[in-house]
Every structure is written in structure tokens, then in C-alpha cells.
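# step 3/5: fold
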Amino acid sequence: MRADDTRSVPSGIDDDPPISLRLHDDFVTTATLLDSSSVTIRQLRPGDHDAIVTLEMALTEEERYLRFFTAHPTYVGEWALSLTRPEPGLVALGVFETGELIGVANFVGMPEKPGYAEVAVVVAHEQHKRGVGTVLLRELGRIARNTGQHHFVAEVLAENDGMRQVISDGGWPITQHRDGPVLSVEVNLDDIDEEGAAAAGPAKTFGSDRGT
């Protein structure tokens, strides 16, 4: 699941929290995972760069492939920099448990398609099936909806059962189209509530793919 991993990074930025997010600089919230653990969710900052790189380096080759569409991404440092010193239109959040970064997610607006934003998430190795990705996506959905976005879009490998489950667990209304090994997924943010969950009605799951 990716969202423009190789975008350029602005220069001349100090170590203060990035102002381009237009969240308040001390933005922080909490969430409860499936095992009842409490975690902190906050915007990523320049000081988180090394922790993001460490998280990526600890992934297995399969996990890297499913997230980056390649087992050996060469742009990890640039990717981490883009999350911690984001350009306008990009929002990046991290989940922290007792100070340790265990997941990151971001969305970036699509200038060519107003109201749409690409979304991506990566969860640390051995932190899967705890609801980390779900709480990240719900918080991102809430922020996106409150800042004028109407749709999330993402490309997900059809074999990425974990990420498909994360989106389904979010309870979001989705549409999808399969093109070979890749699923193009779209979430209608207008149909989620203030907490980032489906507002009403049954959510479509990944049980039936449209297209080939």
C-alpha cells in the first residue's frame, strides 16, 4: 500500500514539528488496540526519522514487498524524510507504545484530483494483528475528512491479505477494481463518522473484486 513514496523533500527546514500539516503542532491522541494496550498517535517529526528507518529495516523481505511493491526499496531514507519533513498536503502519523514507534501512516492530497488523497500504512514486524494499522487509518480518515478530503485511494497487492483485512476492519465503505496483481481501492470519507468509522450501513469487504 503506497502513497508517492519518492516525493521530493523541501529544504531549509529546522527541527520543529512540520508546519505543513496544519494540525496544531502538539497534536496527539490515544487509542486502544485489540489486546487492550493503550498507544499514542501523533504527527511525525524530524526527530522520528531514524525510528522510521529502523522500523523499515526490521521488516521481512515479504513485508517490504507487500508495502513497497519491491523487496529491496532503495529510497527508504528519502521516504522517512518525506514523512518527517512533509510537503504541504501530506499528513503523516505514527503510533507509539511506551515510546517505541510501531506503525506509520500518511495521506497526501492529489492536486490533479481535488478531494482525493492517496493513503499508505506500514506496521512494524511482530506488531501485526493488534489493530495498529486500523487505529492509524481511522485517525487519518478523521483528519482527512475534517480537512476537506472526500476520498482515500490506495493501490494494494491482491496477495496482501493483512492490509486488505486492515481496511475491512476499519468498517469503511469501499469500492475496488483489480488490475492483474493490484487492487485499486477507494474509500468514501463522506460516509464515515467523526471517529473515523463507518457512519451507517454495512461496509463492503474485499470478498468480491470487480474487474480482472
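# step 4/5: annotate
The first strand starts at residue 28 and ends at 32.
# step 5/5: archive (pending)
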